[in-house]
């Protein structure tokens, strides 16, 4: 029974493996239990480690992923509602940008009118308060004029 120890190619000693079958425990319930055990009792494996410790446990089968359920098709009404909402938001955004553009254009035109009034007013002021001897147009001396019955005779 004393066989020589087996070694892995890496140089480590290979542990011995013992297989145990678990025995069901007696139940503390007084009511009769319905037998619902699986078809086969799973095997229990014990592994003896090189330092003498024994590790015992059930073999674990890899977990099988749940099958993916087919997604139900999206209703036509839901698609139409979603597209209508996107279209409504696009129209609202466009109207908001149009309103902002019209507001900016109105402000620009107002500023141009004010600028023209300031320039024209300045030109008039320069003409009126000019100290040069040049006088354009017709000059009327009001002190010499005769006004009879709201009529001007110059």
Helical segment tally?
A: 1
Largest beta-sheet characterization:
3 strands, antiparallel
- Unreliable residue runs: none
Structural category is alpha+beta
Order of strands, widest sheet:
1-2-3
Brief characterization of the structure:
With 154 residues, the protein is an alpha+beta fold. It has one helix and five strands.
Defining key terms:
single chain, 154 residues, 13% strand, elongated
What do these coordinates show?
This protein has 154 residues and is an alpha+beta fold. The protein contains 1 helix and 5 strands, in the order βββαββ. A hairpin with a 5-residue loop joins strand 2 (44-48) and strand 3 (54-58). The model has no long low-confidence stretch (mean pLDDT 76).
Topology:
Layout: E1 17-20, E2 44-48, E3 54-58, H1 76-128, E4 146-148, E5 151-153
Antiparallel strand pairs: 1-2, 2-3, 4-5
